[in-house]
Design a protein that fits this description.
The chain is α+β, with helices and mostly antiparallel strands. It is 15% helix and 41% strand. It has a single domain, classed as at5g01610, DUF538 DOMAIN (Roll).
Length: 156
């Protein structure tokens, strides 16, 4: 009788442990399991799409992500100024980021919200979408993780 109670307790403990280990939250990457910049190439994007002041990030099994920056900031890429809000979100899959929130690009005198990004390996470009309008830039522009600036450059 005592051995069957012990066996039942052991079985329930193992069942609880296996359920906890299969929880989707344990499979989410975090800063402790790697840098978000190292995660981007696994999805077909260069490391430098995000600035150097990433505080933390989450990525669900379904591809929903959030990236928290220490502060909002500007980055000057060659010929393109980008503003990153403190929180960036979207849906990530291989070669594609959709429903982007928190990134704006300056075109002439207008700031436009980036809504999607697509990696095009055949051309070596990243295609950025602002609603129905898109712009292709060489992926090589984003090979290095850019430094953030709290202020907009006067040259922008």
């Amino acid at each position: 009788m005592a051995s069957s109670i012990t066996f039942s307790c052991l079985f329930l403990s193992l069942l609880s442990l296996s359920t906890a280990l299969s929880s989707p939250d344990l499979h989410r990457p975090s800063l402790s399991s790697g840098d978000v910049h190292d995660l981007l190439p696994r999805y077909g994007f260069p490391k430098g799409l995000l600035p150097d002041n990433v505080k933390s990030y989450t990525l669900s099994d379904g591809g929903d992500f959030t990236v928290d920056l220490n502060t909002p900031c500007y980055v000057d890429f060659p010929g393109q100024t980008v503003f990153y809000e403190k929180k960036i979100a979207g849906k990530l899959s291989f070669g594609s980021v959709k429903d982007v929130e928190g990134i704006k690009a300056k075109e002439l005198f207008i700031w436009a919200s980036i809504t999607a990004m697509k990696s095009d390996p055949s051309s070596g470009d990243i295609v950025f979408s602002v609603g129905f309008v898109s712009k292709s830039l060489p992926a090589s522009m984003f090979n290095n993780v850019p430094s953030c600036s709290k202020k907009l450059s006067l040259e922008s």
